[in-house]
Amino acid sequence: MTVRWGVIGTGGIARSFVRDCAAAGVEFVAVGSRSQSSADAFAAEFGIHRAHGSYEELVADPEVDAVYVATPHSRHAEDALLGIAGGKHVLVEKAFTITAAEARSVVDAARRADVAVMEAMWTRFLPQMAMIREIVAEGRIGRPRVVEATHHQALPTDPRHRLNDPALGGGALLDLGIYPISFAVDLLGLPESAVAAGTLSEQGVDTQMGVVLNHPAGTQSVLHFGLDLASPNGASIIGEAGRIDLDSTFFTPTTWRLRDRDGAVAEEFDSRERLTGYAHEARAFERMVTSGEHEGGPMDPEESVGIMALLDELRRQVGVRYAADDPSTAG
Hints:
Blueprint: E1 4-8, H1 12-23, E2 27-32, H2 36-46, E3 50-52, H3 55-59, E4 66-69, H4 73-85, E5 89-93, H5 100-113, E6 117-120, H6 127-137, E7 144-152, H7 172-188, E8 193-200, E9 206-215, E10 219-226, E11 235-239, E12 242-246, E13 255-260, E14 265-270, H8 279-291, H9 301-318
Parallel strand pairs: 1-2, 1-4, 2-3, 4-5, 5-6, 7-10
Antiparallel strand pairs: 7-11, 8-9, 9-10, 11-12, 12-13, 13-14
């Protein structure tokens, strides 16, 4: 079975995803936008034959098996639920939703409809992460104790930009922090407790945040992220007998090395690819669709719900609130 993809949204991440996945042979048959002209332009750019002037038309398209939700965070739950109601399998760009309550509603709806839903945390599906999990499982760094990771970018400062608008889920956490947080959870499991401190903008979104997570079995992660400065964005997994160091940028196909306890390099790896690497998650999602096994794997939907609950708590500690936090504004 060939999975035929539709795309909800025509922004920058949709372009990156489609460009990369199409080059790897993923089949895109339709795109939907809130304007026909935007859908037409996107379709022409990527050679997609069907362009819909609304998301509703896209999810009603009988030629579409799965949809990729590439809209702003504030629309993820709404658009995922739209796709599920249309009987489509749904890959939702990270962060999965705005709140854990929204994430729960999406996962439960997918189960009722017997369709696959997954967060598009593409790092989880990179070959380098499969290798790293294997190295850790083999005990080559001993028992892992600490994960350190950063993600900083110098992003637009315009207060009207979605990154700086709390109504659109702005701030560093959902756009940047999700990477080191998901990375730490992947390796150490969901935390048992969390401590966060951050700096808020005049608009009330987090411009930077530092986080310490206490994971099971006495392990910790120490993470920092911010949207108003740039850094190398490396990461380390530190065990009792060695460590793994990932170079810039750790959540992309990159170079990395295995070190012994004294810091000497035991083995070096170059996981860089010709393409960006988005196609790995698309192919993994297609396998979920065709196999009928809609849960499990490197990015299980229940873990996405757990991560969203963690993000809710980090925001609470720092003082960031979204409209979705208030049930009276829902819908």
